[in-house]
Amino acid sequence: MERNRNYGKRRRGKLLTLLLAAALVAALSGCGSSKGELVEGKVNVMTSFYPLYDFATKIGGEHVHVINLVPAGVEPHDWSPKSKDIRQMNEADLLVYQGSGFETWVDDYAKSRKSNAKSRLVEASKGVTLMENHEEHEDGDHAGHDHGKESAYDPHIWLSPAGAKQLAANIRDGLAEADPAHKADYEKNFAIFSGQLDDLDRTYREALAKTQKKEIVVSHAAFGYLCRDYGLTQKAIMGIAPDAEPTAKDMKEINQFVKANQVKYIFFEELVSDKLAKTLAKDAGIETLVLNPLEGLTKQEVNNGDDYLSVMNKNLQNLLKALQ
Fold first, then answer.
1. 257: helix, coil or strand?
2. How does DSSP assign 6-42, residue by residue?
3. Least buried of 60, 88, 264, 273, by fewest C-beta within 10 Å?
4. Distance (Å, rounded) from C-alpha 266 to C-alpha 275?
5. CA nearest 54: which of 220, 304, 295, 222?
6. Closest residue by Cα to residue 175 from 310, 28, 24, 47
7. What is the pTM of this model?
8. Which residues, 6 or more positions from 315, have their beta carbon under 8 angstroms from its beta carbon?
9. What burial class does residue 274 get, using C-beta atoms within 10 Å of its C-beta: 0-12 exposed, 13-18 middle, 19+ buried?
10. 315 SS3 class
């Protein structure tokens, strides 16, 4: 009998542990989700792509439920909202989008959305000084790609930690306006995240200052802000949007750039085809490495628990390898 009572206690103890673990997972999942429904009692935030999702989750903490519109493994340049997405965008408390020409669908949504839509629109790049899109070709020499549809400015602000901090500040302000009762918490969470971004910036600055080489070849021209802040030069296979085939002239120029600067690696990204990067690398007799533009995470990265900070640190390690 004593043995049975002890066994019963152990079973109840294990069950309690499992229930507590399940409750913790449920609580954490309420703070951020890559999909799902709006949650009663939370500040519901819809974000247009991954970095904004990550920033809103970190700053909002326990008070918010964040849904990322673009699923893991999907390139946001190729994504547009479906009817369910539009319904949720109307009913959420906040819709946080990048702006600066990144989302091609936002202007149409803003014009057509119902007058009784609940959500506030938060443009994360508001007030940020944008770099001009120097990757546009005056002679339109990227076959099959209409450069007239590309933004005149580079929207990839988040790839600079300093730029990411500006985006995060706008998200903080949007949350505080939507939920003034928890403004102090948003300020506190932003201060913590801002400090982490400062540390990341310092790490990048100190590490990249020591490299002999400063030139990189990338899949698309997403790294302008990063290169500007840390004294690097990017040569892109494609333009601001990663959806154009380079011409023979482009390929020749890239090959010349590789040889002239003794480039050892060509960077590719995992949400778009790596065919061109690998072809160029093979022709030049060099190798490829990942440089993640953080427009989204792969399903594997999500499963690994990666976030903006961890991916940026991985990017730095690959940059150092390529520039040694």
1. helix
2. HHHHHHHHHHHHHHHHHHHHHHHHTTEESS----TTS
3. 273
4. 12
5. 295
6. 47
7. 0.85
8. 291, 292
9. middle
10. helix
Spatial contact of 50 and 68, defined as CB atoms under 8 Å apart? yes
Q: How far is CA 303 from CA 46, 163, 292, 299, 307, in A?
A: 21, 27, 17, 6, 11
Answer for the pair 160, 203: CB distance below 8 angstroms, yes or no.
Answer: no
CA quadruple 278, 256, 237, 249: dihedral sign: negative
Count CA atoms closer than 13 A to 10's CA, side-chain side. 6
> d(Cα 159, Cα 230) in Å, to the nearest integer?
11
Residue 118 is classified by DSSP as: -
For 154, list phi and psi in degrees, rounded to 5. Answer: -85, 120
User: Of the candidates 270, 252, 260, which has an alpha carbon nearest to the alpha carbon of residue 233?
Assistant: 260
280 Cα distance to chain centroid = 26
Query: Hey, is 67 helix, strand or coil?
Result: strand
Per-residue pLDDT of the chain (324 residues; tens, 9 = 90+): 444 444 344 444 444 443 334 333 333 334 455 567 999 999 999 999 999 999 999 999 999 999 999 999 999 987 999 999 999 999 999 999 999 999 999 999 999 998 889 999 999 999 999 999 875 443 344 433 333 355 689 999 999 999 999 999 999 999 999 999 999 999 999 999 999 999 999 999 999 999 999 999 999 999 999 999 999 999 999 888 777 678 889 899 999 999 999 999 999 999 988 999 999 999 999 999 999 999 999 999 999 999 999 999 999 999 999 999
Terminal CA-to-CA distance of the chain, rounded, Å? 70
Q: Distance (Å, rounded) from C-alpha 158 to C-alpha 169? A: 12
- Distance, in Å, from the CA atom of 197 to the CA atom of 199, rounded to the nearest integer, reads 5
CB distance 271 to 79 below 8 Å: no
